[in-house]
UniProtKB/TrEMBL annotation:
This is Haloacid dehalogenase. Transmembrane segments: none annotated. GO terms for molecular function: magnesium ion binding; phosphatase activity. It comes from the Bacteria. It holds the Pfam family Hydrolase_3. The lineage of its organism: Bacteria, Bacillati, Bacillota, Bacilli, Lactobacillales. One of its GO terms (cellular component) is cytosol.
Length: 278
């Protein structure tokens, strides 16, 4: 079976810890696309937050190129910036998530397509976002009226103790109305999408159907909790050496290289060597 579509996480997978794509990874991806393969960036980020990465990859505004954003909450055709799928919170749902974050004392992100609105960030969180080159606005007031006309596709709770966030998720589902999909990333975030079964895996299913590609012809590459479903779904799966243990056990190939050592280039080279990638 030949791989026809590669779906790859960004942070700490394709991107190094400084938020950059190495020239080795770029060369490997360009070779894949030259041979007719699809390369899909899949991230918890919004499309605007992914823009510079897509420019570097050469997939922005390019025919037959796609992006999975907000953990599958929004799937986009890059050429026309057309949304093939989208899921946004109601204002009531946002208010409930805001009230819960205030009660529990956690930092809160509201993510629209254009911007991150931040409540109660620590100095360390601001430094982390600056390192990742993400645009944000810190909100000082404790009200949400300015969000009434905004389309918020994802909400994040940030805390340095990931186990604390996992415990909160149990309480959160009882506190809030409506269906929520919860995942975790970067060992610091609880990521919340509205609706059931919102994930990068669902984004892969949509694109595979759209492109008439079998799931057995998809390679998924990731490193963290919010990549688990897609590596389990895809016919081929791989991760960098820095991936969490829970994900590594589901991967066909674990690179000996980390995100800082061009792991994606190594992974694509591996599948070429065993004749499963052109």
């Amino acid at each position: 079976m030949t791989i026809k579509m590669v779906v790859c996480d960004l942070d700490n997978t394709l991107l190094n810890e400084e938020g950059r794509v190495s020239k080795e990874n770029l060369a490997a991806i360009h070779s894949l696309m030259t041979q007719g393969g699809h390369f899909v960036a899949a991230s918890g980020r919004t499309i605007n937050q992914m823009e510079q990465v897509l420019v570097n990859l050469g997939t922005i505004n390019r025919e037959n190129c796609y992006s999975i954003t907000m953990n599958g909450g929004v799937v986009i055709e890059n050429k026309k910036n057309r949304k093939l799928a989208h899921s946004y919170f109601t204002y009531r749902e946002l208010y409930q998530l805001f009230a819960f974050a205030q009660r529990e004392g956690v930092c809160l992100h509201f993510q629209t397509d254009e911007l991150i609105y931040l409540f109660h960030p620590s100095a360390a969180e601001l430094k982390y976002l600056d390192t990742q080159q993400l645009d944000y606005v810190v909100i000082e007031e404790d009200q949400l009226t300015y969000l009434k006309n905004e389309k918020v596709g994802k909400v994040l709770y940030q805390h340095d103790d990931i186990d604390y966030l996992k415990d909160l998720s149990v309480i959160l589902k009882d506190y809030c109305e409506g269906d929520l999909t919860i995942s975790y990333s970067a060992n610091r975030y609880m990521e919340i999408n509205c609706g059931r079964d919102i994930s990068k895996a669902q984004g892969i299913k949509l694109l595979a159907g759209h492109l008439k590609i079998s799931l057995t012809e998809v390679l998924a590459i990731g490193d963290n909790y919010n990549d688990l479903e897609m590596v389990e779904l895809a016919g081929f799966s791989a991760c960098p050496s820095n991936a969490i243990a829970e994900l590594r056990q589901h991967c066909d190939y674990i690179s000996k290289k980390s995100c800082n050592q061009h792991a994606v280039a190594d992974i694509l080279s591996h599948y070429r060597q065993i004749n499963q990638l052109k």
